[in-house]
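Dear colleague,

As promised, here are the two records you asked about, laid out in our usual form so they can be pasted straight into your sheet.

NAME FIELD: protein one
SEQUENCE, THEN STRUCTURE:
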Amino acid sequence: MRLVMESAGLTFWPSLSLALFMGSCLVMLAWLFRPGSRDFYRAMSGIALNDAEPLSGREE
């Protein structure tokens, strides 16, 4: 595969794709662990178990 890529002049694409993949993973991790997000995730984690409020648009 390397020989095919080198003969076609496409040697930078694998490096570029790896850099883009790693960059997107790092951005995702930074977004998940950003300051102040813990309270939001704790509040969202209990929504499925909360029977006190009906879902919007649902008639009971």
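NAME FIELD: protein two
SEQUENCE, THEN STRUCTURE:
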Amino acid sequence: MNKITITTPDDWHVHVRSGQLLRTVITHTAKRFKRAIIMPNLNPPITTVTQALHYRNEILHALPENSAFNPLMTLYLTDTTSAEEIHNAADCEHIKGFKLYPSGATTNSQSGISQLEKTYPLLDAMQKHSIPLLIHGEVTDNDIDIFDREKIFIDRHLATLTQKFPNLRIILEHITTQEAVHFIQEQSSQIAATITPQHLMFNRNVFLVGGIKPHYYCLPVIKRETHRQALLAAATSGNPKFFLGTDSAPHPQYRKESNCGCAGCFSAHAAIEFYTEIFEQAGALNKLEGFASHFGADFYQLPRNQSTLCLVKENWTIPATYPAGNDEIIPLNAGEECTWKVL
């Protein structure tokens, strides 16, 4: 197959930053996706509807002329979030969820939740207002191995949440383990998960063997090959609980290549192309449209897009860098060949 046409996809998890970095990266997402769930972990974080609408306007002003891209906003759940703010979010057409970061779990998560139990009244309000909870599912205890943090979060916290709040729609973001796959498969239709391109393409050898490669470092970290295989099977299964979320997370080169490099892979430049390669190699191109274009919209209770996106089988070389003002961004698979291209 040399050409495919699918319903225009959506990205249900993306970081677009702000300022010059936003102006650099948003064009890549807008070229490939009709809508995207925008992460709120700026510094300071987006915690109110007013802040989210201001941020949305910044995104809209950074878009190319005549772009039809629609940023869907989220609020950062904190220890001080009020029930009133949840009510305000539920009444705003542009707010589509609250993001839960355990404190210290990833970039700009220092304002995250310190004790999950403190959020229970808020989660009950979200359940009543039918507003989704988006979770970065890792524990952050210093004595827990970084490769085990997702599994332990599921065992220690997520299983309890699904029992206490059975009507709360929960998305476990950027899952990385076979335990997460099995957990999602066993839950009700209220529980879903997003999967990134890097966790489908690579195991942990990619950034640890032959020298540390910081541009493949993300959180949750890429795991063993057995986990990659489980994620691939889930993504290509046609199960509507699993859908596309790139977690594209740009950082300037100097921040990735430092003595304490930032977590995050920038994939927006070739996101749908990566997924198309992945599904083709798995012999599952017929399952791509559901994963990329249908299941996320259905879970968020939004209409499926009416437009289409066409990709052709054509080799092109991913640039070594993308300029971002006075800085540069190193994209995922920089300098490598990509075998599909958006028309």
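A couple of things worth noting about protein two: The first strand starts at residue 3 and ends at 7. The CA atoms of residues 67 and 194 lie 25 Å apart.

Best,
R.
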